[in-house]
Design brief:
The protein is mainly α and 115 residues long. The protein has 5 helices and 2 strands; from the N terminus they run ββααααα. The chain has a two-stranded antiparallel sheet. Helix 2 runs antiparallel to helix 3. It is globular, with a radius of gyration of 15 Å.
């Protein structure tokens, strides 16, 4: 293995990977495709386009009214941008006030928070 492997962060999906490693590239391609599909499906929804990087989500949290969107973005990322399994933005907004930040903690299955 070469010592020249460099770590790259995709500016679109936020995935950090080594472009010299085939498996990393496969994982990035899967996540990238899912992120772009979600980006297209959610175009015009929310205050800014998804996906959001960790840094972008943290910046949004500085504005109190954008915390919910930041949590939604993280929750969606944790579910690999699976829009069939993840609550819609509307569902997320309706349930968020009841559950507060605990909604973002249930990243393995955010639909539990809807119950």
């Amino acid at each position: 293995m070469s010592d020249t492997n460099t770590v790259t962060e995709c500016k679109v999906c936020g995935f950090t990977y080594c472009a010299d490693l085939a498996e990393d590239c496969r994982q990035h391609n899967r996540k990238h495709r899912a992120a772009v599909s979600a980006q297209v499906a959610l175009a015009g929804v929310g205050p800014c386009p998804l996906p959001l990087s960790y840094r972008q989500r943290e910046e949004l949290k500085r504005e109190r009214h954008l915390v919910k969107w930041s949590h939604f973005a993280r929750s969606l990322e944790a579910m690999n941008y699976d829009l069939k399994r993840h609550p819609s933005w509307g569902e997320y907004q309706r349930t968020y006030p009841k559950n507060g930040s605990s909604y973002a903690v249930a990243l393995d299955d955010p639909r539990k928070a809807l119950q």
